[in-house]
Specification:
With about 325 residues, the protein is an alpha+beta fold. It has one domain: 3-Layer(aba) Sandwich (Beta-lactamase). It contains 11 helices and 11 strands. It has a 5-stranded antiparallel beta sheet with strand order 2-1-11-10-9, sandwiched between helices. It has a two-stranded antiparallel ribbon with strand order 3-6. It has a two-stranded antiparallel ribbon with strand order 4-5. Strand 9 and strand 10 form a beta hairpin. The longest helix is centred in the middle third of the chain and has 16 residues.
Length: about 325
């Protein structure tokens, strides 16, 4: 199916979606046509679990008590939002205005700034010591001195959440990383993302923060870019770095499921954010934007997305997963 042709069917602009989400009430996960609000009630069990975890290991959502919020689907993500992209209708919402760290979801905005700047995608860039993560100590297979094109770095940043690739993209922007981050924040304001601020191009900083409502707007804006859609949903990719041939897989396992038709996605994780994912997907003949933030574990965001898919489609069968093909 051509996702480019599907995009032509969208009728809600980014600005209109931002306005619709600002005015939208929290909706229930009773039938999709229901307008009843999800009731947020503290869970003593969840609260006691949070208190038992050392404070330094808690996500920001846990510290705010958001994981104690109950919902009819028993999601284990602190924040959830499902929006019909064509109409702006909110189908499911949970803590959608909470402002939390968004980790590597940041890289969608990084990609928007790179593509907006129209810098040559075939220009070779070099990974330097400046791109090494000294904040979280994450590792990378892109060694200092590796040379890749800007397009390859963008591919790895979106598909495999490569932090050195994302930082190199920002560093090679006119004015360097400070100018790049300023452009990210300026773009957020232009899109009407009132709850959002960016501190770096990778998402490693917990200063990259947003709400589910704003992230739906970011997904809407990113989905208008053919290149970002294509690179973010690429199942796997080989990249030649000198004499080495590196193999990368998509960080979102749902890409490999035939039960899912995903046209844009981005995952994210740092300790402060928990496990996160945003997607644009076609389910039940609807073009949906889905946001899940602060999930409790590596597989929880996948399980929560599956709960939402089955609720939306009425399909009681679990998703299957196929091996990636390049």
């Amino acid at each position: 199916m051509s996702w480019i042709s599907l995009q032509a069917r969208r009728i809600v602009t980014v600005a209109a979606l931002a306005g619709a989400l600002s005015a939208a009430a929290v909706v229930s996960a009773a039938p999709a046509t229901s307008s009843a609000a999800v009731t947020a009630r503290p869970s003593s069990t969840a609260a006691s679990r949070a208190r038992s975890v050392p404070q330094q290991r808690l996500s920001q959502g846990q510290r705010l008590g958001l994981r104690a919020t109950l919902d009819p689907l028993a999601l284990r993500s602190s924040v959830a939002l499902v929006v019909d992209q064509d109409t702006g209708e909110v189908l499911f919402s949970k803590n959608e205005t909470a402002v939390l760290p968004i980790a590597s979801i940041t890289k969608l905005m990084t990609a928007l700034i790179v593509t907006d700047a129209d810098q040559p995608l075939d220009q070779a860039l070099t990974i330097t010591q400046a791109d090494v993560d000294t904040l979280k100590g994450t590792t990378s297979r892109l060694r200092v001195g590796a040379r890749l094109s800007r397009g390859e770095l963008l591919h790895l940043a979106l598909m495999a959440s490569e932090n050195r690739a994302a930082h190199a993209l920002g560093r090679n922007f006119p004015g360097g990383v400070p100018a790049f981050v300023a452009a990210m924040n300026r773009k957020a304001r232009e899109l009407g993302m009132i709850d959002t601020r960016f501190a770096d191009p990778t998402g490693l900083s917990s200063g990259n923060q947003s709400s589910a409502r704003d992230l739906a707007v970011l997904v809407q804006a990113s989905s208008a870019n053919d290149l970002i859609r294509s690179l973010s949903t690429s199942p796997a990719h080989h990249v030649a770095v000198g004499a080495r041939d590196l193999y990368y897989r998509n960080s979102n396992r749902l890409i490999f499921s035939p039960q899912w038709s995903i046209s844009l996605q981005k995952t994210g994780f740092i300790r402060e954010s928990g496990r996160c994912v945003v997607m644009q997907a076609q389910l039940a003949d609807r073009h949906l934007i889905m946001v899940l933030l602060d999930a409790t574990g590596p597989e929880t965001r996948i399980a929560d997305a599956e709960r939402l898919r089955r609720w939306i489609t009425g399909d009681v069968n679990p998703a299957t997963f196929l091996p990636p093909r390049i």
